[in-house]
Structures are given as structure tokens and as C-alpha cells.
Amino acid sequence: MKKQHYYLQILFLIICLITAQNKTFAQAKNTVSGKVVDETGQSIPGANVSLKDKGKNVITDENGHYIFTDVIAGNYFVEATNVGYKTYKKEISVKEGESVTADLLLETESQSLKEVVVTGSSAPRSKLESSVAITTMGAKAIEDRAPSSTAALLQTIPGFVVEASGGEIGNNLFARGIPSAGAYEYVQIQEDGLPVFEDGALQFANADTFYRLDETVSKMEAVRGGSASIFANNAPGGIINFISKTGQNDFQGRAKFTTSDYGMFRTDLNLSGALIQDKLFFNVGGFYRTDNGVRNTGFTANKGGQIKGNITYKFDDNDYLRINFKHLDDRNTFYLPIPLKSNNGKVEGIPGFNPNYGTLTSVNLSHLNVPQYGGGTFSADLEDGSHPIINSIGAEFKKKISEKVTFKNAFKQTSIDLNYNAIFPNGGPWTQEAYATGVQNTTASNLTYSYVDNGETLDQNALIMRADLWHIEKKMSNFANNFSFSFDLDPVKLTAGYYYSNWKSNQYWNWNSYLVGVSDNPRLLNVTDNTTGVQHTWNGVERITWLERDAQTKGLLNDIYADAEIKATDKLTFNAGLRYNKDKYSGYRDNARFFAEDLGILDNNTADDAVTTVKGNPYTYWRYDVSEWSYTAAGNYKFNDNMASYVRYSHGFRSPIEESFYDNAADLSKLENTEVNQFELGYKYSNSFFSVNANLFHMNLKNVAFTDILSDGSSENKFADVNNIGLEVETNARYKFAKLNFTFTVQKPEYDNFTGTNADGSTFDFNGNTARRIPKFFCNLRPEVDITKDFTAYVQFSYYDKKFTNQDNKQVLPAYKEVGAGLNYTYNNLRFAVDASNLFNEIGLTEGDPRQTTSAASDVFMARPILGRAFRFSVAINF
């Protein structure tokens, strides 16, 4: 409650300050105002309205209204644009002392190719003239999708396989069939053009852990492949850029309340306006949320919020200075694989464990206190979950130096304190006989299992397993600066820039194994050998600090880049880009004594016999330099105002990831950058009824790293090549009261040069196998119907083809589908909505257990399914 009051007090003070400021300004006599509507008469919020020749721009409010004040008498053109609509222009005449009303009618286009995009390019350009595969989504479209997390929204993008089964954070994205250990290894998530953190694939620090969707978001732009390596580091798979709302002359506000069938209480607020008319603008907003989570943990699963905003000062000629800030303090439960079984190929839950709502993360495992090597006690709180505290501040400056030259600079300083706690399955499920013989080297009759909380004996037919509490602390910081000069040398537009970034991540790990009975909300078990009296657990902890790690990774990036856009003819445009990375990575790692220490403080107990410790050991210091070129070339041909096609070749790379540095710190000679070569052929078409964006691509990757942490604490530490050929298609259609969005991807990602020897001496040959966790086909279908002008219904259907857990392609994750649906109703300035996900409680497996190296001695297996059916209800008001 204290944190909730903190956020509400700050937002209240902001409202008071803004209201006081706005009261000081009187409205000028000469005004131009009106409403922007579509063919049905429905208002269009968020449309851009320009008063041509005067450089004035405003955004329509949630009722579609706009207003220009202090307009000098004269003749003007008023122009309205919005995503999915044709541009509309109207001539008006303003007389002294007159208020002019000009309502503007926008005709729908299924997906306008005239929409201007800024991501993955040196200058704003229309989709029609862009030679990249890009998906965009405005604030209204994002709200209509009702995503439960950032990852859930990204599932709508073709070419991106997104696993959103982990909950609100910590999810995985695989771009164009590139296999990885997870996270956002080949894609960069940006906020207003700069990364949320420079590397989005640090261990247990996935990029979506540091970003939340709320009412401050204006638009999402997602580039796949193409020019991404020119405009972002370690991002040959793409760039996902979330663009924030900024202020305008008129004061606008939006408040939203959301609840759910899993105990959600969420409030969102966004406010924007002018502190000085036509000069100084603000936008500020945020959210506070608490809920129990779709999977039942027995405690509050998600709790926290953020405050985010910007202040913009506009100079003449549309130059500006913008200062932005963000404070995020949010904790989330992270869900991992659960026990399941197969019944003639159909995945089912096991008795006592609900596959849609059950989880090994339980209130019964919340508080860990264990003795440590050298004295003292280690403590961890599972209920704190993945808990980042983020503070960032930055600025953006744009100045037109001359008619031909424009200068732009943006920087951001980010500090992150991440406290991470989650339950990972790490052995089993076992029958009691399998555990006795395979783990404790005795017979089943010699062991007695009892619950820690009440001493009752475990049913002899019940399964048992290890459920580890993995605790990770990360102290992270990042300063990034990007400046560039743009030259308008008609017919060539040239941009040259310099990017600097330094970042640091210090981390400490302490992992402990619980022994639990396999069930929803599992309970801790104690195990005693009744023949010798030896205990194998201590308060339910079977292995005390079996893994401890202390390490640091730092990056220092000094990169130069250039991008040229050449308009050869009115129809033909060429693009070429070049980037040179001169980067340095350094750090240290512990030399822990693995499973080597016997604490000797627990009498007649094996739980403290094999402790791992970093104390008393030296550290290994390492350094790795990167000197790499990335380059791209493309041509775009515009057949007419509705159709274009492009061809592009690009070469990019990904530096070794954090785990590779740790594993190979003593000898980095085996490490190489992952080289990514892509060829793309794109086609774009749109009219007022239908649009299609199709992209045929071929990817060749050299030296892809596989670095999953296994059950025994080691890393895979393997490398291979990957080839993939695929087709991404995004279509939109609209006819009268009905809309249809359909996206699909078909691909064939396969391993090459993937042979070798395992740690146990056995050999492997994975050449020709399908890349793990990547389906060959997946699609999204979304029909939407306007029942009335104000009442809309939709259905969201997703399908994912079968895929494989590991490189050997032995464990198959079957194909699955997921269906969602929703209704929304608008009444004046109110919007009511109900949204449902996984309506039919499908058990769709997004991953197996990549940490498990051997199968359990039972017919039960571990995998992570999508979240069960859930309903959310919301009401929003615009003012």
C-alpha cells in the first residue's frame, strides 16, 4: 500500500502543477478547430492534423477533436493523416477575430503505405519508399490487441517466434529462425530510438524485464533484418522501437482502470499539454498494478509500477530539445516448466497438478535461509520475484544548421538494480524408487519422506522432484549517446553518425535445491535414511548453495555509421548503409570450487556436503575486442502509389554473449562473433480495401552459440552454423463494418557444421536437424466486426506448428493453437472492454526443459505451457 500511495501522490502533484500552469494561458481569438472522423462518422483519436505552411501540428484527442490557437489571418490548407487512412487536405480561410470550424473526413485504407516510419532508417520515410520489412502499430491498435505483456504484443509480428509463457517478463524472442538460449539475443528493444539496455540477452535480464507497456506509448515500429545492423548493435534479427507520446498545445488526459479474474487491480494515467503555448510541452504518465497471476502461487505474483515522461521545447523550423525520464519499480513472478504427461500423443496434466493454472512456484517455498561456507546465513525471498528498479534520464536535440544540414543528438543514462528469484525445475520428477536408487544410491524401502510443515508421511505413490530457488543479483548501468549529421544533397540524402555506449553488469548467484512433492503449490519434503539415520535434507533443502557465482561483464562501444538514400528516379530509390564497430568487452569471473566444500555444520546430514563457494579463490580477468563491419544495400521500386517492391542484402553480426565469456574466460580464442548474412525480397501493396506485405528471406549464420545452463550447473558451450529460408506475410483487409488481419511465417531453419564430442566422451551429429524451439510454420488470424458504430467484437486465433526442445530433435513439442476474443464499447469519452485469452484452455508447449540432460524415471516430463484462460475487464476515460 505504501508504494501505491507513493505513485498516486506523485501523479496528484503532477496534475495540480499542470492544471495550474494551463490556467495561466488564455485562448487566442483566431482559432481553427474541428473533428476528424471516418466514413461512418466515428471519431478518430490520435490523428495528426497540420496547418500547412505554418509548421503547426497537433494530435486529435480521444474524441477526434483538434484545435489551433493564435492563427494569423490568411488562407491555409489543413491536412489530416493517420495510420490506416488516406491523407485528407482541405483549404480554409481565416479572418481576423474569427473562429473557423473545419471537420475532416478520412477514408480508410487497409494499411497505408504512406505511413511514415523512423526506425531502421536515417530519416523518416514512408512504408512505400522503405526497403525493409517493418510492422507498425499505433496506440489504439495496441489497446485493441489488449496484450498482457510486451512479449504478447510482439507475437503479432511475422517472422518473430515469441514465447510469452513466462508471464509478464523474462520471455524469449527468436528472429527469423535464429536459435538461441532465449531472451532477445539477436534483436534490440529500443525506447525512443535508444536501447532499454545495450545488451538484451544478459543472463536472467531479458530486455522485456526492463520495459512495460502503458498509456505513455504512442506507437511501436518493428524492423526485421534489413538495415537493423546499421542502426543498432548486436541486432541482425531486427529492432523493436517503442515511441513515446509527447505533448501538444491542448491539455489532454486519459485514465484507465483494469481488473481481471486473477485478482488484478491496475490504474493507468497519461497527461499531456503545453506549459507555454507553441513552445514548451509535456507528457507524463504511468501505472500501478497488483495481481495474483494467472498461475496460482499463493501470493501476490505481480506488484509495482512506473512513472515516465518528457518535456519538449520547440524552436523554429521544427527543431526541438526534449528531456525524458523513467522510474520503474516492479516485481513479477517468472513461470518455468511444469510436470506433464502424454496420453497417446495428447499432452495432459498429471493428477494433482493443473496444467493451465498450476506452478512449482509456491508460497510454501517463499523464504530460504541456509548456512554459508565461512559462516553466516544466505537468505532469499521468492515473493520478490524478478524485481528491477530502474532509473533513466536522457535528452534529444535536433537542430537544422542550414538548408542542407541537420544535426541530431540523443543520450540516455540508465541504472538498474535487479533482484531475481524464481523456481527452476532441476531434477525429476522421480518415482520414490528412482530417486532412492538413482540419486541416493540405496533402496526405496530405506528412505522415509515426510512433509516439513506437519511431519506427515508422503504417499508412497507420489512423485518427487527438485525445485531450485535460483537467486541472482545484478547491478547494471548503461550510458548511450548517438549523434548524427544529415545532409540533404538532392537526390542524395546522407546521414553520418557516431554511437558511443558503455555498460556494466555485476552479478552474484546463489542457487539452492528444494525437494518437493509434485503437485500444485508443492510442499517441502524431508528425507531420512531409516537404516542409518542420515538425513538428506535440511528443512526441505536438499543441496545448500550447490552453485555460487560472482562475475562482471562490461562493454565499451565506439561505432561509426553512414546511411545513404539515393532517389534515382521518381520510382526507383537505392539505399546503402555501413557501420564499423570498435568495441571492447571485459570483466572477471570467479573460480568457484564446484561441489567441493563440506560445511560440516549439519550433523548426520548430507544437505551441506557438496557446497560450491567462490570464497578464497582468485578471479580470472578477461578482455575481448571486436572490430567488425556491417553493411547493407537495397533498391526499392515504386510501381505506383499503391505498390512497391524491394531487394536487400545485409551483413551483420552478434558479439559473444555473457555466458560465453564466463565459460571461456581462461581462453577466449575459441570465441567468434556470430556472422549473419541475409538476402530479402519484399513486396508491398495496398488500396482502400486490402493490403499485403510479403518478405522472402534467406539467412546464413556462422558460429551461433548455444549456452543454456544445464541441471548440473554447466553450460552447453557449443557452436554451430544455421541456414534458414522463409516467407513472412502480413495482410489486412477491410470492408464496411468488418476487418481482417492475417499474418503467417513459413520457414526451414536447419543446423550445419554441428558435430562434436559431448562432455561424457560420446559424439553427436546434428547436421540437417531443425533448429530447436523454432516452428516451421506459425500464423495469427484476427477478424474484427463493428456490430454498431460504437460496439466492436474480435477473435484472435494463433497456431504454432510442432518444434523440438533440443538440437537432437528427439523431444517433440506438438503443434498447438490458441484462441482469444473480446468486446469493446465506446460511449462518448468512455471505453469499456472485456478481453479473454486462451479461451479453450489449450495446453500449448512453448519449450521443454532445456536444462535437463537426462529423462526422468517416470512417464512424466517437464515443459512450459502457455498460460490458462484469463479474462480482463477495463474502462478508460478521456478528458
From TrEMBL:
Residues 1-28 form the signal peptide. InterPro entries: Beta-barrel_TonB, Beta-barrel_TonB_sf, CarboxyPept-like_regulatory, Plug_dom, Plug_dom_sf, TonB-dep_rcpt-like. It is a multi-pass membrane protein. Gene3D superfamilies: Carboxypeptidase-like, regulatory domain, TonB-dependent receptor, beta-barrel domain, TonB-dependent receptor, plug domain. Belongs to the TonB-dependent receptor family. Residues 408-839 form the TonB-dependent receptor-like beta-barrel domain. The keyword Cell inner membrane does not apply. Pfam families: CarbopepD_reg_2, Plug, TonB_dep_Rec_b-barrel. It is found in: Cell outer membrane. Keywords: Cell outer membrane, Ion transport, Iron, Iron transport, Membrane, Receptor, Signal, TonB box, Transmembrane, Transmembrane beta strand, Transport. Residues 127-239 form the TonB-dependent receptor plug domain. The keyword NADP does not apply. Its main location: membrane. This is TonB-dependent receptor.
